[in-house]
Fold this protein.
Amino acid sequence: MGDGQKRFYYWAMAPAVLLVVVFFVLPLLQVLWLSVSEPTLGLQNYAALIDNPLLHRVWLNTIRVCALTTLIALTAGYPVAYAMAQVGEQHRTLMIFCIVLTFWLSVLIRAFAWVMILRTEGVLNSALLCLGLVDQPVRLVRNEIGVLIGMAHYMLPIAVLPMYSSMQAIPRTYVDAARGLGARAWQTFFWVYLPLSKPGIIAASVLVFIFSLGFFITPAILGGGRVVMIAEYIRVSFDETLRWGYATMLASTLLIALSLGLALVARTINVQKVFGA
Amino acid sequence: MGDDDNKAARAASHSLSLDKLTKRYGQQTAIESVTMNVVRGKFVTLLGPSGSGKTTILMVVAGFITPSSGRILLDERDITQLAPEHRNFGMVFQGYALFPHMTVEENVWFPLRVRGISLVGAQKRVREILDLVQLGGLAGRLPGELSGGQQQRVALARALVFQPDLMLLDEPLSALDKRLRADLQWEISALHRRLGSTFINVTHDQEEALSMSDDIVILREGRVEQSGNPSTLYERPATRFVASFLGESNFIRGQVSNIESDRFRYTVQDRSFLQAGEAAPKEPDGSVLVALRPEKISLAAEPTNLTNSVEGRIADFKYFGSTFYLQVATKLLGRIMVKTPAASATFNPSIDAQVWLGWSPDASVVVKAS
């Protein structure tokens, strides 16, 4: 490639770079700046991290909900990924299609759909009551259970795909070798297959956990205001209580915590691989 | 292990019979009515080019492929429907299939672990077998940290540690370089002698087959072409395929002209050659195909007094240190390959030099043309 051509490509990238700088980097810096300058210059907003019990509760809530979501999505997703790695080409295409299909529905629609299904007069409770399995409707929504169901459902594809791609790389001969050496199905699975699929499990955990941290529509709708997570708390601080300094502090904290977490994880796994780069 | 142990081990080893095994995939036939007997304690090699069905047979024996028809008998027991994990066979996979997340020790422990033996309980046996394959010092390493030859030894140790009824080897040496391959051939043979168990080996490498086996089964397009001990197969190939696949061969087609009790004459154009044995199998047109090994031809710079002789010119030659390998262009028989020991060569070959080739009536053998 000649120098002139190279220069052309650099210029061709300019609009995109400009867009990112003006609409992403600058606002981000502004958020960081606001968090230490609003209402007055200093770290007083960050003091809340230490002495505000409400904030502690929000953070603990967030981490618990995200951790449980990760656990549920991975547990439910593992068999799906496993099945995808075992079936033939045609079935696999169909399965991938079904999994990606849910991505095309807006989060909002999905959250409301879950409310319809889970509410006390909803389909699920009516069915349970009709079958006589319960005497009274079970509270499945407007609490943490509802939030977990909704979030785990949303996260399922994000859990399945990295696990599937890691399982696909496990050569069939390892399973054959284990069986040939006398291992029963469960021994082959727990001692050979599961450890070999560990990279996929780690990748899926990281992705699901990080995505979960930023959730606010699903918890807001399915939690009915009872389960406040950090993203929702940030929105309320911006929109309703109008404490911009406090809100930007929360946002900055989330950003920094995420970056630190990723950096920690990156020491043990290849993060670029997790994100498909 | 002493001599008595050896006998005990041999008595504990098993024989295997395959009875009309057939495997079809849709229209495709992978193996067709394969029948063979593996005698207890023997080292048997399935030899054939790719697509000959040798790996399919091994996988059927191992239990990974269910045959379309036919039976597998271990001693007198029918094991055709038995799952691989219940067959108690040791298998060395192509590429070894060592578990990458386990150390050498854990890999070798694995077959004992699945049989309910703890690592502590297995320690002695694992150590012994690792010493046997000369890997005692590497127990704590991961497979990825080992050389190809070392991985191969771990695979052997892992397959042997639980005293399997049968050892199955799927192209065990194909990934190794030539020198290492030769070393491991000696080692595997020694292991086999020492343990006395029955080994079935799959390879496409004819030298490996010849040097390691008690018996060789040559496969072609899913069928058994010929089987027997290595020297019989080499000296008395039944077909053109065997003669050219196991070692190298020149082929001469001639018209049978004069049959005596234990020999006959055949002619190529106007030249007549003498061949020991019967003029069988004879082709429908009355001709015979004679296979002649390159190393059984004597080479001279003057006309020879051997019974069969033909003259030609050296078209090309190579020097391999121990042998000369020559291509001799003859008017009568076309190109003839000749191998002659360099140490006893009576002259130095040069391109275009006139030479006389000679061979005795029992140096060549009549083979089936197809």
About this structure: The first strand of chain B starts at residue 16 and ends at 25. Chain B touches chain A through 27 residues (CB under 8 Å).
